[in-house]
Design goal:
- With 318 residues, this protein is an alpha/beta fold.
- The protein has 13 helices and 14 strands.
- A seven-stranded parallel beta sheet has the order 5-2-1-9-10-13-14, sandwiched between helices.
- Helix 1 crosses helix 13, helix 4 packs antiparallel against helix 5 and helix 7 packs parallel to helix 9.
- It is globular, with a radius of gyration of 19 Å.
- The relative contact order is 0.15.
- The structure holds ligand FO1.
- The site of ligand FO1 has 17 residues, from helix 2 and helix 6.
């Protein structure tokens, strides 16, 4: 039975997801992962955020890169480059196995959810891992260099183009994870945690699915978001740059506003304690915790802090 449901994207989200695996019982924790970054490349179906979370929870992740497998080799890419193939997106030799196997199983008619659950089980992950949908949703950016699919913008152009608008193609009609919808409607659910992933690139694709957004708004469990902005800067990645380009003030308060109507609680970093009053003024409960996750200890501590905050909100009937 799911008691804790976490929503996350790739690198930043996976860190708190890992912390949560130490703060909640494995059979009571489910992680719902963004698939807006998914794409088809060299004939393979790539699910970067699902894989980042899978490798992180399995203890196989490449901590230096933030994606892919630790101890990876690159013979395939070296050879592809020699052949003049597309080399802007790096597929490691061992990582390639997952893409080939996932693609084969998708072509054989299995859904992404079933494949992801099976891979997680085979890699020794105890909690549930759910892609946000088995239907394609594709994040597309309108930039000063034209319209770019997510990975062309993120990896191909290293997030350099200025973003004017973002679309989540397919989100209107995609059916959200049935397990996530069931968990959100279940009175046994005790906490929903929106991990400190990029709100516009990693969490928004989930919220763009109308049924998931409605289920989140209606869930009896407290919904808590952890700010990905600390002291006016993003811990990692292009969140701050993107906010500036979208004309938004780069503060943790702006992210709280983005989640307005969905969240009951918001976790600010200690650095941003002066924003507590502003966020509370939006009718959202605030907790202040150290949110910068370096080692495993800080991930566990933040996870425990967030779950304790959820418990307090539940007890106070919010
Ligand atoms: N990110 C990069 O910056 N460069 C890459 O070449 C790259 C390859 C890659 C391959 C498999 C995978 O699962 C992820 C990969 N990523 C790469 C990361 C990923 O594309 C992004 O970090 C996420 O989509 C953003 O959350």
């Amino acid at each position: 039975m799911t008691r804790v449901l976490a929503l996350c994207g790739g690198i930043g989200g996976a860190k708190l997801a890992l912390g949560l695996t130490h703060a909640a019982a494995p059979d009571e924790l489910a992680i719902l992962v963004n698939t807006g970054d998914d794409f088809e490349h060299l004939g393979l179906s790539i699910s970067p955020d699902v894989d980042t979370v899978t490798y992180t929870l399995a203890g196989l992740n490449n901590a230096e890169l933030g994606w892919g497998l630790a101890g990876e080799t690159w013979a395939f890419m070296d050879q592809l480059r020699k052949l003049g193939g597309e080399d802007w997106f790096n597929l490691g030799d061992r990582d390639l196995a997952l893409h080939v196997e996932r693609t084969r199983r998708l072509h054989a008619g299995e859904g992404l959810s079933a494949i992801t659950a099976d891979v997680a089980h085979k890699l020794g992950i105890g909690c549930a891992l759910w892609p946000m949908s088995d239907d394609p949703v594709r994040t597309v950016l309108d930039t000063d260099e034209g319209v770019l699919p997510f990975q062309r913008y993120f990896v191909g152009r290293r997030t350099e183009p200025a973003v004017r608008a973002i679309a989540y193609e397919g989100a209107d009609t995609a059916r959200p994870s049935a397990q996530a919808l069931a968990a959100l409607a279940d009175p046994a659910l005790e906490a929903v945690v929106i991990c400190p992933s990029n709100p516009w690139l990693s969490v928004a694709p989930l919220l763009a699915m109308p049924a998931l957004r409605a289920a989140l708004a209606e869930t009896p469990a407290p919904v808590i978001a952890v700010s990905p902005i600390v002291g006016g800067k993003a811990i990692k990645g292009p969140t701050a740059k993107l906010m500036g380009e979208l004309g938004l003030p780069v503060t943790a308060g702006t992210v709280a506003e983005f989640y307005a109507g969905l969240i009951d609680g918001y976790v600010l970093d200690e650095t941003d304690r002066d924003l507590a009053g502003t966020v509370a003024g939006q009718g959202v409960a605030v907790d202040i915790l150290p949110t910068v996750m370096t080692g495993l200890e800080s991930k566990q501590a933040l996870a425990r802090g967030v779950l304790a905050f959820a418990e307090r909100l539940r007890c106070s009937g919010r």
